[in-house]
């Protein structure tokens, strides 16, 4: 199929489970230096918090040890309706005609590495959000369920954002590290002048996930706005040192993480460790914030810096964590001595909370044109594959 220009809406709801981001992107086929690199123009971005009841249902289902099939079926349909409403509101506000939609869905479980189950060793992933609800409501095809094809090709199914990172940010003379800080932190590293086969990408560890859990439990707030609570606390260094010995941080890329590693059980243990040293709740938030910054910095130092070969490096941050001033200040102190110049995607024309939604718009465009969407060097897949399934109207 010959590639064509399209208006594509990307829908993203991440591991923070705080709501839905919709990015509408104009995507045109293009080639640069003999490499296919579509041209993307952001037309609109809107964020929609989950209603309280829906967020409670999502959090209860994530990595749950026990939940009814009826609850899962209802949640799948309810999320599809929420996604459809978010896209509809964005389209009506900005008066844009859509050609296609890409929906990541809400991850309930992601097991990137094979484990024994029912007599076989399998990896698996599951994202909810009924695509037919979106296609019917909006009247255009929907690409969804992106991760399984990648995993059956031997990859970890994550991260899938590196294609967008490469298309938008690869630079002939500067190394680029795209660090997203959502519920989980993930990075894409692109050495100066590199082709897509040289891209490095992996999940760095907890992003906002532990910070948010403690803010909710200790202060009854959904998150620590601008890191203002953490700024009043002190980092509990023994807790931080112990946390950084978590087995996940010793894994070499490709690697991916989620609530299975850093969800409510982890947050509860982390808080208990903090309370053994301090009864001041601000100290727990400060330590969780330091854990995110340190794990990102250590990931860069161990796995990315050698590939950059002493080239100048732009560390370009996105996600909700980019709005946390305390986190960004600590990250700056850790990365600037390593030769990184910190900016945000907003400085490059892409709002920090829009990038992942825009990525799934691009992946949907790729799928529609029968083009692969994964970056095997990032995920460990044996080959490039076409991602997702298409639901027609």
Describe the overall structure:
It is a single chain. It is built from 14 helices and 14 strands. It is an alpha/beta fold and about 400 residues long. Strands 1, 2, 5, 6, 7, 8 and 14 form a seven-stranded mixed β-sheet that branches. The longest helix is centred in the C-terminal third of the chain and has 28 residues. The chain is globular and about 60 Å long. The mean pLDDT is about 95.
Strand elements, count? 14
Largest sheet: 7 strands, mixed
Kindly report how far apart the N and C termini lie: 20 Å
Strand content: 15-25%
Backbone structural class? alpha/beta
Tally of DSSP helical segments? 14
Could you write a compact summary of the structure shown?
The chain is of the alpha/beta class. About 40% of the residues lie in helices and about 25% in strands.
Notable features of this structure?
alpha/beta, 14 helices, globular, five-stranded mixed beta sheet, 14 strands, 393 residues
Q: How is the topology of this model organized?
A:
Layout: E1 6-13, E2 19-28, E3 31-32, E4 35-36, E5 39-49, H1 52-61, H2 69-94, E6 100-117, E7 120-128, H3 131-138, E8 142-144, H4 147-152, H5 162-169, E9 175-181, E10 184-190, E11 200-206, H6 209-219, H7 228-231, H8 237-243, H9 259-262, H10 264-277, H11 281-308, E12 313-318, H12 325-335, E13 340-344, H13 355-368, H14 376-379, E14 389-391
Parallel strand pairs: 1-6, 6-8, 9-12, 12-13
Antiparallel strand pairs: 1-2, 2-5, 3-4, 6-7, 8-14, 9-10, 10-11
Helix pairs in contact: 1-2, 2-3, 5-13, 6-10, 6-11, 8-11, 10-11, 11-12
């Amino acid at each position: 199929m010959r590639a064509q220009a399209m208006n594509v809406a990307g829908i993203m709801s991440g591991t923070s489970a705080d709501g839905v981001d919709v990015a509408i992107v104009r995507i045109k086929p293009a080639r640069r230096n003999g490499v296919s690199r579509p041209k993307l123009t952001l037309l609109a971005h809107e964020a929609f918090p989950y209603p309280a009841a829906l967020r409670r249902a999502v959090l209860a289902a994530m990595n749950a040890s026990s939940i009814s099939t009826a609850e899962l079926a209802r949640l799948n349909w309810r999320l599809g309706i929420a996604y459809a409403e978010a896209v509809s509101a964005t389209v009506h506000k900005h008066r844009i005609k859509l050609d296609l939609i890409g929906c990541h869905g809400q991850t309930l479980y992601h097991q990137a590495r094979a484990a024994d189950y029912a007599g076989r060793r399998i990896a698996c992933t599951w994202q909810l959000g009924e695509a037919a609800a979106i296609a019917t409501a909006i009247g255009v095809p929907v690409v969804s369920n992106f991760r399984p094809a990648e995993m059956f090709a031997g990859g970890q199914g994550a991260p899938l954002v590196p294609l967008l990172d490469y298309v938008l940010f690869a630079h002939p003379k500067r190394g680029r590290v795209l660090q997203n800080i959502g519920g989980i932190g993930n990075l894409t590293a692109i050495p100066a002048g590199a082709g897509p086969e040289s891209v490095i990408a992996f999940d760095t560890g907890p992003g906002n996930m532990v910070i948010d859990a403690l803010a909710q439990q200790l202060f009854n707030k959904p998150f620590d706005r601008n890191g203002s609570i953490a700024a009043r606390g002190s980092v509990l260094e023994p807790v931080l040192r112990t946390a950084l010995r978590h087995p996940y941080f010793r894994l070499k890329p490709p690697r991916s993480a989620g609530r299975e590693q850093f969800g409510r059980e982890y947050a509860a243990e982390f808080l208990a460790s903090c309370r053994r040293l301090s009864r001041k709740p601000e100290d727990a938030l400060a330590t969780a914030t330091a854990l995110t910054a340190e794990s990102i910095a250590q990931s860069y130092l161990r796995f990315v810096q050698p590939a950059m070969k002493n080239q100048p490096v732009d560390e370009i941050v996105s996600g909700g964590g980019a709005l946390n001033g305390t986190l960004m200040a600590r990250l700056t102190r850790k990365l600037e001595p390593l030769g990184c110049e910190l900016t945000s995607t907003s400085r490059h024309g892409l709002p920090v909370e829009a990038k992942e939604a825009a990525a799934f718009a691009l992946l949907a465009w790729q799928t529609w044109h029968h083009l692969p969407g994964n970056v095997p060097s990032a995920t460990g897949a044996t080959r490039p594959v076409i991602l997702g399934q298409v639901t027609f109207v």
